[in-house]
Amino acid sequence: DRGVLIESSEDRRKAESALSGTDRPLSIVEQIQKLNLTDTNTDKNDDDGVKFVYLPHDTSKPIQTVCLPSRLVNVLGPAGDILPTYVKSFFADGRSIDEKIFKDQVTKQNLIGGDVQKFAANAAKEKKLSTVSEGEPAAAKEEEEKTTTSLSSSSLMNATAGGSVETFPLVRPSKTNKNEGVYIYLDEVGMLKHLPLNARASKLAQQCGYHPAPNFYGDVFVGRVSSTPMLHNVDIENNDIMDTSKEWMVRAPQENVLWQQALNDATGRSGESQPNHAGTEGIAVETSSYSWLQNEEEVELTIPLIDDGDDKVVNKSLIRVAFQPQKVVVKYNKECKVEIELYSKIDVDGCTWTLDKKNLVVTCEKAREGEIWPRLELSG
Fold first, then answer.
1. Count of beta carbons in the 10 Å neighbourhood of residue 307
2. How far from each other are the two terminal CA atoms of the chain, in whole angstroms?
3. I need a labelling partner for 2 at 20 to 30 A (CA). Which of 39, 61, 165, 318 fits?
4. What is the rounded distance in angstroms from the CA atom of residue 260 to the CA atom of residue 213?
5. CA atoms of 50 and 212, how far apart (whole Å)
6. pLDDT in tens, 97-106
7. Measured between alpha carbons, how far is 302 from 363 in angstroms, rounded to an integer?
């Protein structure tokens, strides 16, 4: 279902040509810079193109309408979703990939878009094909195979240096919604860059029936496509995603349920639904030394201080708990019980602990309210 989108070298050349010259339209980066300077909407954009929405992670910044240049649509269209080609330069921000998160994701293959190995191989293959001559297809294939077998954070950074876009379906085109789908366009490696959580994007997905809501990282865009008579971009404006009474948003939860049921029927799976995030829905994640739960505001750790079979009573005076912005250390009777480098930051002033018989219950207030962590420890 769409997911990671990688443009062809031919489309890249066409896009570069359409966005060059003295009379070229603004790039998406320039549009956003203009928004930041004027703090006004771009509904009256200089270019008569297709409208879509800029949704910043920073809640102090407004959700605003931007424009997909008609020149680019004319060059690459009329069929197809042109937005990924246009917005990918926005995600070419030069940020480095977090090595610890990267290693964890390679192990778990847990990117929103799926298989990081295949993604990087495809990206590297496309990059290679855009530079080799017609007589060198074997070299491109060899490079692809090398990337698949020896993926590193540096190779992934190199493969995505020009920006990499992933789409997430808020609702897919169907007969019940006039064959119009609404999608979030995000940085495919946003989580690996440790970009800030976009709580507004997660809330939007929740309003469309995703429970629990997915995590989105960094600034994102929201666009609309129509699948008739062929797939193409159509207008969506900021009010279309801010007004929860809009028909498309009201109908989205039921339409997503119907889509999932149809997919289950087609694939022979039953009861397939979204996986819960770790530690949510009141289901604790168990480890050898502690268990933990989370909600949008806080994380709770339960740490046994004395084994169940031990008749001793916990001495509160021997408990030492140290809270740091991204670390928790618990000691009992000078013995270190847990030392955890957390996935994200906590508000030290909002952290407490209590004693429940032989267990220490540590509650940490999240620094970023509304953030659901994919795991407790940064390194996994």
1. 9
2. 28
3. 61
4. 16
5. 31
6. 877 767 666 6
7. 9
